């Protein structure tokens, strides 16, 4: 049966490993700009060999291309500039002269559902894409290319066991709830993410330790409203449906 992979939860980085093993600890790499994360693969280069007078090739040589990961970061501070582009930070000032390069990183793409992608030894190349206007924003265009490893694979994808949480659905009345309801993760480590899609200004989500708290504003409309909260801990993901009744 197929696996539907959809949505980005976060991109995580850690210490690169040339032996093909992902590190035990990874951290979120900034805020990925909405709808910018893509994993793409160029078409293979094909060389065909023909017998004289024949239109069908006797055999082909294919040069398969390694997929690459691309995304944009929207919250770059000086430390993130040094990590992604290179250079160094001294007394809070990023300096770049093109000689100090960034280091390779292990990269994990955590999706909201479906496959998770691992790059144990990735070369990060980033370029500034800043528009200093009222409608613009300072972006970093990031490309991660998987590099060779001594064992295992440069790029891996797999499904993970879902994160177990105390409830997969929260239901609110139409009234304001400033106390909120909580969802607790059954995990070894603390939550690394608890969030809802952007634009859901009728509720707030906060998290600390293994507990996520959801608070809602009053719903003055007759129609109910709902969204999905994504929770991540131990590299596992859970989806919690949040519904508020109409007035």
Describe the structure.
The protein has 247 residues and is mostly beta strands. It has two domains: 6-159, no CATH class; 164-244, Immunoglobulin-like, CATH 2.60.40.10. The protein contains one helix and 20 strands. The strands form five sheets. Strands 1, 2, 3, 6, 9, 10, 11 and 12 form an eight-stranded antiparallel beta sheet that branches. The radius of gyration is 22 Å and the shape is globular. The two termini are 41 Å apart. The relative contact order is 0.17. The model has no long low-confidence stretch (mean pLDDT 91).
Give a brief description:
This protein is mostly beta strands and 247 residues long.
Summarize the helices and strands and which ones pair or pack.
Blueprint: E1 6-15, E2 27-28, E3 38-40, E4 45-49, E5 59-63, E6 68-73, H1 78-84, E7 88-90, E8 93-95, E9 105-113, E10 115-130, E11 138-146, E12 156-159, E13 164-165, E14 169-172, E15 177-186, E16 193-195, E17 203-208, E18 211-216, E19 225-233, E20 236-244
Parallel strand pairs: 14-20
Antiparallel strand pairs: 1-2, 1-9, 3-6, 4-5, 6-11, 7-8, 9-10, 10-11, 10-12, 13-15, 15-18, 16-19, 17-18, 19-20
